[in-house]
Design a protein that fits this description.
Elements: H1 14-28, H2 30-69, E1 71-84, E2 95-104, E3 110-114, E4 131-137, E5 140-146, H3 149-153, H4 159-195, E6 199-200, E7 203-204, H5 208-220, H6 230-240, E8 247-252, E9 255-260, H7 268-273, E10 278-287, E11 292-307, E12 310-315, E13 321-324, E14 332-336, E15 342-345, H8 347-360, E16 364-366, H9 369-399
Parallel strand pairs: 11-16
Antiparallel strand pairs: 1-2, 1-4, 2-3, 4-5, 6-7, 8-9, 9-10, 10-11, 11-12, 11-13, 14-15
Helix pairs in contact: 1-2, 2-4, 4-8, 4-9
Length: about 400
């Protein structure tokens, strides 16, 4: 009897499948990601520019009226207007109440002005009949503003939001081309690593031992592999493909490490013959709750010194450590197989096999720790630049 399998976290809904397909499409098409960044950046930049123009226009109108062109009148609160806004002051209400004042111009016309600087969440905060000073243009009484200290200080307050928004949009537009180039480089490196995988059935495919282990586990349904955690199954499958190679698997908190078996003297002469001067280690961290894993690459210098049995490898000091996504292009020549064919081992291809193994277990690869730290640092630097630039522009706008 065929058994249906329900993914962890419940069944996958059609909407989630659409989101996953769209995510996969953007992850495999760098140009689409760049286009998305350009569209979002253009929208944010356009909104920011409109906000800047609106704030500067309101400030110019107030400056013109307060510099002597305006006439002061007494405005009387006649009604409280209820406005529905998506940007509200409290999390419990999506409406705000703003007072509308009426005044009589010098030509006898009756005009009104809405005060958006004193809006409240409660309509009963205002008293009908209260008065407030109003400035208006005698040539066009419809152009009127509230003349209070609070209103004067908020005439250009929109710049506090518009300027950072504009800079953020410009940053996205500038970052889009480099993001596309970086994605294409990563894709090319992944394709190159996959090209070094064994060929099965005439088509480039996953490593045979990965597919075989997954097929056995799926057919069995129960057994020793299903009795252990996903992390241990992950480590076992990776280790099963390292027989006859200078790599080994060792456990670590929340995952395992894959790297050169430098404690095994069998590989010393081979590593020295291949002139290995760097030791690459792939630290795999597994988050079983989120069904994700990440790989942190660490490169340490490797030196050779004379020992009792020959040349002995020694790892460099901590100052010689590099981390992040590292392209390790060295090929280790292992010798001749029984058929007389030269066999070799590629650590970079092994990294691709680790990713393939994780995916065969239903895990999704994520960015490494060094990459995340770099992104957070870059975001923080951009944020500081935006704050500094917006502050400087605001000061210039207010004083100029």
């Amino acid at each position: 009897m065929q058994r249906s399998r329900v993914p962890r976290g419940g069944p996958v809904h059609r909407g989630n499948g659409t989101i996953m397909r769209a995510s996969r499409l953007f992850s495999t098409r760098p140009a689409l990601r760049g286009l998305l960044l350009c569209v979002v950046g253009a929208l944010i930049t356009g909104s920011g520019i409109l906000g800047i123009v609106s704030a500067l226009h309101q400030g110019d109108v107030r400056d013109a009226l307060t510099d002597g062109a305006g006439v002061t009148a007494e405005g009387t609160l006649t009604e409280v207007v209820t406005l529905h806004s998506s940007t509200h002051r409290t999390r419990y209400s999506d409406t705000e109440h703003c007072p509308r004042y009426a005044f009589t111009a010098a030509d006898g016309s009756r005009q009104t002005v809405l005060d958006r600087t004193q809006c409240s969440d409660r309509a009963d905060d205002f008293t009908t009949g209260s008065t407030i000073p109003v400035l208006y243009d005698p040539a066009d009484p419809k152009v009127a503003i509230i003349d209070t200290p609070g209103a004067r200080g908020s005439s250009r307050s929109g710049l506090l939001f518009a300027i950072p928004m504009t800079l953020l949009g410009l940053g996205l537009l500038i970052a889009a081309p480099s993001a596309v180039r970086r994605a294409r480089r990563n894709r090319a490196a992944e394709d190159a690593a996959r090209a070094e995988m064994p060929v099965l059935g005439g088509e480039p495919t996953a490593y045979p031992e990965v597919a075989a282990a997954a097929a056995v586990a799926s057919a069995a349904g129960t057994g020793s592999e299903t009795d252990v955690s996903v992390t241990e199954r992950f480590a076992r499958r990776v280790a099963s493909g390292l027989d006859g190679t200078p790599f080994m698997v060792e456990p670590c908190p929340d995952g395992f490490r894959v790297g050169f078996a430098l404690a095994d003297a069998r590989w010393w002469s081979i590593l020295q013959y291949s002139d290995v001067r760097d030791s690459i280690t792939y630290t795999v961290r597994v988050d079983e709750r989120k069904n994700r894993f990440r790989i942190d690459d660490t490169l340490r210098t490797l030196s050779w010194s004379a020992g009792a049995t020959g040349m002995v490898p020694r790892l460099g000091v901590s100052s010689s450590i590099r981390s992040g996504r590292i392209r390790y292009g060295r090929i280790i020549q292992l010798g001749l197989d029984p058929g007389g064919v030269l066999t070799a081992f590629s650590p970079d291809a092994e990294r691709a096999r680790i990713v393939e193994t994780g995916r065969s277990l239903g895990l999704r690869p994520g960015a490494g720790r060094s990459t995340l730290i770099g992104l957070w640092a870059a975001g923080g630097a951009i944020g500081l630049c935006i704050i500094g630039a917006s502050t400087a522009l605001l000061i210039i706008a207010l004083t100029g």
